[in-house]
Design brief:
The structure is a homodimer.
Chain A (H helix, E strand, L loop, with lengths): L3 H13 L5 H8 L4 H14 L2 E3 L5 E3 L1 H4 L1 E7 L13 E3 L1 H5 L6 E6 L14 E5 L9 E6 L2 E10 L2 E5 L15 E12 L2
Antiparallel strand pairs in A: 1-2, 3-4, 5-6, 6-10, 7-8, 7-10, 8-9
Helix pairs in contact in A: 2-3
The structure holds a DNA duplex.
Chain lengths: 189, 189
Amino acid sequence: MKDSHRTKLSRFYWAHNRMPSFSEMAGLFGFASKNAVSKVVNRLVEEGIVQKDKTGRLIPGASLKGLAIRGTVGASFPSPAEEELVDVITLDEYLIHNHEATFMLNVSGDSMIDAGIHPGDIVLLERGKTPKHGDIVVAQVDHAWTMKYYEKKGKQVRLVPANKAYPMIFPKEELTITGVVVGVVRRYV
Amino acid sequence: MKDSHRTKLSRFYWAHNRMPSFSEMAGLFGFASKNAVSKVVNRLVEEGIVQKDKTGRLIPGASLKGLAIRGTVGASFPSPAEEELVDVITLDEYLIHNHEATFMLNVSGDSMIDAGIHPGDIVLLERGKTPKHGDIVVAQVDHAWTMKYYEKKGKQVRLVPANKAYPMIFPKEELTITGVVVGVVRRYV
DNA sequence: TGACAAGGTATACGATCGTTCACTATACTA
DNA sequence: TAGTATAGTGAACGATCGTATACCTTGTCA
């Protein structure tokens, strides 16, 4: 009941990719008057659930558009099974730094399996980023894409798989880096 | 130049979590008249970059709010290094099915490392989902959280780690399932 | 019992919304 | 060179926006 307004707002936001107008909220909440909505919204703003632009428009608060991190699991020391609210983040904010330069690739081989990148995963690549030693990159080798560790000692560059069954690559001439892997996501059906 | 309007819209959308009004777009695009904006928007709607609600409001098209999947990497057979556009998805849509019941936990141990879940990863949990045989779950054991495979043979339930260094768990009495792991995300700095 | 706060309705308000029409300037084409 | 799209300006339009005011219930508490 207390969460009801909040929940309805959340559902609307994710269904429509925008915040509802006051009239729409009246319908959502079951009010006949926009004034009732106005009072509810004021309370929600105070609670931080929604915010107002500098232009006065309604935008979702962090807890509406993000997901809560509620603790840590799997620590070798027994982590207290208490749900503290550590942070609220958006998957996009967390994984993507440069929207225009980022895209994704399906992963089908097991050449990076020792790095925890499995077949069926999706990797996020950022184009135009210069790789650092130890980064995972997708490079174009012999007209095909390969995902490897990018290692650089002095001027020597090599591409190292995270699976001993695959060979290293010492690029002879130019090396076309398609992108630097900035994230991995995996979905369990 | 051709992408300019699109890019500016994308930046605005991600910065403000809403679409700009026509007046704001006039400012964004450098127009003095809203009519110029109107013509541009009509074109963008035809191109599918933005859409209009049934209420006439502007919402981002798939390519604005989502990320493109541009192929497959790491196939054992050489996958052609051509960027086809396979799909456009949102990380939220891809990973989250039930917004209200989903939350995240940091991963700190290596007990699931053979399943490709590493320390530093973030797992997405869905609360209230009944686990199937083979699912990864977070359960409450001795006042601490553990992440394990959930295996069920007949009526026998056991929790199996994906790391031989850790023991199995055969819950004696009741087993408190905090949530079923529905996704994993990892960020490379 | 009376006072008062909380929560809702109804209505009116100026501001802004997106659309439209008439017009101008530029550039391309026959 | 004349003709015609293309792209933009400027002003006006009704509709909807979010806000504000006045009023009407309730339930609570002294």
